[in-house]
Amino acid sequence: MARIAGVNIPTNKRVIIALTYIHGIGAHKAKQIADKLGIEHTRRVADLSDAEILQIRETIDAEHTVEGDLRREVAMNIKRLMDLACYRGLRHRKGLPVRGQRTHTNARTRKGKAKPIAGKKK
């Protein structure tokens, strides 16, 4: 099992698919990394040599923000918005949708499970 950026990537998958297991690397960046290093898209992680895995690791470390650093950066950006008390920060603070979605119906992912309100009694 290859370990890149603190993540154990699966050995039986293709290189491009396996790289997407790293937080911050999607399909597009994975293809760019493979093309830059001259690794075929059809090759499996198990077929890579130690030198190729080392090249991938060094490329990701040098050129991409991934895993813990990326999570910390995103968290700091959200914290900055909340400290500024701007509209987006207030929405984050209240746990409501940030990007203009409707909340009259839907928005259950952000708002959580619906809480019943005591209705009128006859």
From TrEMBL:
Which stretches does the entry tag as region Disordered?
95-122
- Carries keyword Thylakoid? no
Which keywords does UniProt give here?
A: Ribonucleoprotein, Ribosomal protein, RNA-binding, rRNA-binding, tRNA-binding
- Keyword rRNA-binding listed? The answer is yes
Q: Which InterPro entries match?
A: Rbsml_uS13_C, Ribosomal_uS13, Ribosomal_uS13-like_H2TH, Ribosomal_uS13_bac-type, Ribosomal_uS13_CS
Any one GO CC term of the record: small ribosomal subunit
Stored SUPFAM superfamilies: S13-like H2TH domain
- The domain of life is Bacteria
- GO molecular function terms attached to this record: rRNA binding; structural constituent of ribosome; tRNA binding
Q: Which Gene Ontology BP annotations are present?
A: translation
Family according to the record: Belongs to the universal ribosomal protein uS13 family.
Note the PANTHER family from the entry: 30S RIBOSOMAL PROTEIN S13/40S RIBOSOMAL PROTEIN S18, SMALL RIBOSOMAL SUBUNIT PROTEIN US13M
Free-text function comment from the UniProt entry:
Located at the top of the head of the 30S subunit, it contacts several helices of the 16S rRNA. In the 70S ribosome it contacts the 23S rRNA (bridge B1a) and protein L5 of the 50S subunit (bridge B1b), connecting the 2 subunits; these bridges are implicated in subunit movement. Contacts the tRNAs in the A and P-sites.
- Describe its partners and assembly state: Part of the 30S ribosomal subunit. Forms a loose heterodimer with protein S19. Forms two bridges to the 50S subunit in the 70S ribosome.
Q: What is this protein called?
A: Small ribosomal subunit protein uS13
Q: Which organism is it from?
A: Novosphingobium subterraneum
Gene for this chain: rpsM
